[in-house]
Amino acid sequence: MLIEFSVTNFRSIKNEVHFSMLASTDDTLNENTIANQVDSKHRLLRIAAIYGPNASGKTNILLAFDNLRRLVLSSHSFQKGTKMGYFPFMLDQNWIGKPTKYEVAFIKNNVRYQYGLEYNNEKVISEYLYYFPNGKKSIIFERNLNGKIWLFNVDKKEQELCSKQTLENTLYLSRSSQLNYSKTGEALSWFMENVGMLLPSIQTDLEEWTARMLLADPETKKKILLGLAEADLGIVDATTIIKKYKDIENEHQAPLPNELKQLMGLDKNPNLEFLTIRTAHRGIDKKGQPTTVPFDFQSGESEGTKRMFSLIGPWIDALKTGRMIFIDELDVKLHPSLIKFLLKMFNDPEQNQKGAQLIFTTHNTGLLDQDIFRRDQIWFTQRNHKLGDTELYSLIEFGPRKDANIEKGYLAGRYGALPFIKGKKVI
Q: Which site among 170, 263, 281, 333 is 20 to 30 Å from 133 CA-CA?
C-alpha cells in the first residue's frame, strides 16, 4: 500500500510536491480508510481524487510516479551511456540540468519501506532504501556523491558485490534485485506487482486485460459479467477468442501477403496473437421468443461501453489482489452514475478486503460530496501563474466544515484550482 510520494523537477513540477494517502484523524466515513499494517495510529485512504484545471499538472503527478516505476523496473537493462529519461521543468533555465528527485513510502508484506532517488539524464546522483522491520528505521543501502559512496548496514559483502556490477546510469534497486538480492527484491516487487497505471493512451491494452481475464477462470468471468450487468450496459455475456496468424492462414487456406505480415509485425513475431471480443445482448427471434444476439465488440458497442469494459477487468483484479492503480481522467466517456459505481467498489470494505487503493484525476465536480469522499481524499492542482509550475495541496488544508457544500465552494473559487478565464473577446 502507498503511504506517501513526493517529486521535484519533473515536467510542470518545479518545487517539491508531496502527496499522501495517510488518513487524517477525522472519523467521518471511516469505511473509506484501511487499517495501517505497520502503524495502528495512522490509517490509510482507499481512494484519492485529484482536481484542477487543464494544464495544471494533474496528469504529471501520475506520470511522475509512472516514470519512477519505469526506472525501477527497467534500468537494470541499460547499457553504459544509455540516457535515463529525464524530463526537467523547462520554464526556468536555472532548473534545466538540476536533478529530478523522488521519494516514496509504501508497505509490502507488513513491512514499511522508504525509497529515494535523485538523477539526471546521464547518471544516478543519490539513491537509498530504508525499511522498518520492527518499527525502527534501518538502512538497506545508501548511494551518494554521484553514486561513488556506498553504505550498507546489512549483507555488506553481498551488497558490495552487487554495487560493483551497477552502472552509474542504473538504479541499484533495479540491478541488485536482478542479481537476486532479496531485501531489494522485496521492494522492487511492490513496483512490479502492486502498482498499475491506467492511462488513456493504453485503452486498447486495458480492453485486452479484461478480455484475457474472461479466460482466466469461471469465477473471474462471473464477476466481470456481474460488474457489466450492474453498470446496466445490456451485456449478458462476453467471450474472448485468441488466434495465432497460422490458424488464420489455415482457415483461409492461403498465406498472408508479405507486406501485410510486415505491417502487422508478423515477420518479427510469427507467434503474434490476435484477440477478438464478442459480446451478447438480449433480443427476440422471428417467433418473438427470447434469444441472445452476438455483437462484435469493436464495431457493435458504444465508446462508453468500451470504456467501462476496459476498466472493469483491472478494477476486479485490483480488488482481488490488493493492487494500487492510478488512472488519468476517470470520467472520460462514463456517465456520472457509473463513476460512482466504480468508486463505491473501492470504498466498500466488503468488496475491497485486501487494501486496494485508487488514485485518479477528474473534472467531475459532482463527486465533491462529503457523502462520497472524506475531506482528506480530495486533492487539487493549480498552476502558478507567475511561472507555470504545478502546486499540489489537499482540501483538508482549508478545514471546511463537515456540512460544507464542497462542490459549490470549489466552483466559487474557495479552494483555488480553477481556470482563470480573463473574459476577453476572441472574435
A: 170
